[in-house]
Structure formats: structure tokens, C-alpha cells
Amino acid sequence: MKTEMIMTVVLILGMVILIDKIYGKINIENYSPIWEYFSKAILYGFIASVTLFYGKESLRDVNPLEWAIIAVSAIEGTGNYINYVKESKRRKEEKRKT
Fold it and tell me: Which residues contact 81 (CB under 8 A, 6 or more apart)?
């Protein structure tokens, strides 16, 4: 139990330090949320996949709470992917104009 807690704290601190370094290099004036949308879409897809398939023999084993988590993850992931595509097209248009 203690080892799991220590590993969790170390993992969270490592992620916080990594995110701090990445966001420290972002120029706010030219900020584009394209990678934020992309990473959120991947994360929500991962959450939906793990919730749906981890330890399940069939879809009958998925309880209503898990279905709700899957639905929210799918909707959010799709929305973030659409925003990613829109932002990607906008950036391509800006590059063509310049």
C-alpha cells in the first residue's frame, strides 16, 4: 500500500514537472490549442476503451455507470477531435495567406 502511494505521488510530480516545462516554452501571444485538443481526444479515447474492454467478457458485463463514463468520454473525445481538425485547417489557411 505504501509503495503504491509513493509511486503514485512520484508519477504525479513527474507529470506536473513535465507539463510545467512544456507550458513554460509556449509563447502566449501565438498560442494555438491544437495539441491540447489532440491530446484530450487521445486521452478520452483511451478512457473509453479501457472502461469498455478491461476485464470484461462481453458487453453485458458493463454496468450503467461505466456506460455513462464511456458515453461522456466518447462525446468529449469527438468534440476535441473536431476542434483539433478545425484548428489544423485554420493554421493551414494562415500559412497559405503568408
Answer: 37, 38, 41
Distances (CA, A) of 45 to 31, 66, 67, 78: 25, 14, 14, 9
CA atoms of 32 and 70, how far apart (whole Å): 28
- Residue 41, class by beta-carbon neighbours within 10 Å (0-12 exposed, 13-18 middle, 19+ buried)? buried
Residues 29-52, mean pLDDT to the nearest whole number: 82
Sorted by where each begins, the domain ranges of the chain are 29-97
Whether the full predicted model's pTM is greater than 0.70, yes or no, is no
Q: 69, 75, 77: which is closest to 45 by C-alpha? A: 77
What are the cell numbers at 84?
483539433
pLDDT one-digit tens code per residue, 52-68 = 888 888 888 888 998 99
